[in-house]
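Give me the fold.
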Amino acid sequence: MLVVHDIKKSFGKKEVVKGVSFSIEKGESFGLLGPNGAGKSTTISMICGLMPYDNGDVQVGGISVKASPMEVKRKIGVVPQDIALYPTMSAKDNLIFWGKMYGLSGKEAKRRADEVLDYVGLKERAKDKVETFSGGMKRRVNIGAALMHKPELLIMDEPTVGIDPQSRNHILETVKNLNENGMTVIYTSHYMEEVEYLCKRIAIVDHGKLIALGTKTDLCNRLANGTVIKIKASKLSGDFVSALKALEKVERVVTNPEEGSADIFVTEEKAIGDIVACTVQHHVQVLALEVKEPNLEALFLQLTGRSLRD
């Protein structure tokens, strides 16, 4: 469905995407993760044809974005992070507008708007103005706009930011249902659990490069023996963190100053004794200590040195 081959993008002298390549099969649900500034949004913009790439190529359904951008855009539905709706228009009129923008006739746009509103659970609010909706309802209409022309590839950029749990669950179930019915989905989120729930394969980008790609199991197996020790202390001094990093069985230490914690990636669980001894030596008051199971959050920290929400 999608082939991204060695795409690059620079702004002036700064290269923000550095030869990214991956492919997605038809009907797949694919997660794209990266910390802020990793090049994720730029990559998505190039896939959508909203931004030209300097090198390489992107093909959607075998059609080059560079050679035939309008034909590719007809195959893609985009759900942007920001709400792309007219607040003083009704939900149905918004969908009709976007349907016509995709080339639907007036009659077809009205029929399709009714179908989509029913699908996103807002049929009863069809005639209400969008400005009267909650944040979650607006996001559901936002998704509906991307579905009007029945796209082959749906790209969702942070579709659940700042909404209530009920709307969030409704959106996740809607996406899962779309994918189970054959729609190819690219999903980005700052909520790792959403990506784990929806996506079969996941790519991680950082500093403009693709640094990991595979299934959740494949990626978690990349952790150093799957062991991460999380320590929360009254104070994490620079000397103490340096001492942790110098321990023989410690591969990496990622600190979170705001919560006064550190994730310590170790080659074996026995390293916990050395870590405790280090806290005693540096007079560190330990508030909590936890041995964490291998997961995507831990891998993300190990590879990027940042949490997904940083």
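The longest helix spans residues 165-180.
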